[in-house]
Amino acid sequence: MIVLFKDRLKALRQDGDLTQIELSKILNISRTTISGYESADVEPGFEILNKIADYFNVSVDYLLNRTDIPTPYPKHK
């Protein structure tokens, strides 16, 4: 089974016991945008991808299914 961004986002949100409304407030975007991400009708830009990765403490590569390892890379100093 191919895991898509929409699946990863929804799983992370649900694992964090967050509603779409709660996540939308955290990311400062609309609930309908979150819904669009989770239905694959809308794709996030780089800034939002980074915000999502930072909030859930995962790598962007994990969100985009380039790896199954969620651990983010160390940040440059």
- The percent range for strand residues is under 5%
Indicate the CATH topology: 434 Repressor (Amino-terminal Domain)
The CATH homology group name: lambda repressor-like DNA-binding domains
The overall average pLDDT, rounded, is 93
Reported CATH architecture: Orthogonal Bundle
Largest sheet: none
Question: What is the level 1 CATH name?
Answer: Mainly Alpha
Secondary-structure element string: HHHHH
List low-pLDDT spans: none
Task: Tell me the count of domains.
Answer: 1
Cα distance, first to last residue? 37 Å
Number of strands: 0
**Overall 3D shape:** globular
How big is the Rg? 12 Å
- Residue share in helices? 40-55%
List keywords for this structure.
5 helices, 77 residues, mainly alpha, globular, single chain, 55% helix, 434 Repressor (Amino-terminal Domain)
Outline:
55% of the residues lie in helices and 0% in strands. With 77 residues, it is mainly alpha-helical. It has a single domain, classed as Orthogonal Bundle (434 Repressor (Amino-terminal Domain)).
Please provide a written account of the structure.
By secondary structure, the chain is mainly α. It has one domain (5-63): lambda repressor-like DNA-binding domains (434 Repressor (Amino-terminal Domain)), CATH 1.10.260. The chain contains five helices and no strands. The chain has helices spanning 5-15, 20-27, 31-38, 46-56, 60-63. α2 packs across α3 (31-38). The protein is globular. The mean pLDDT is 93.
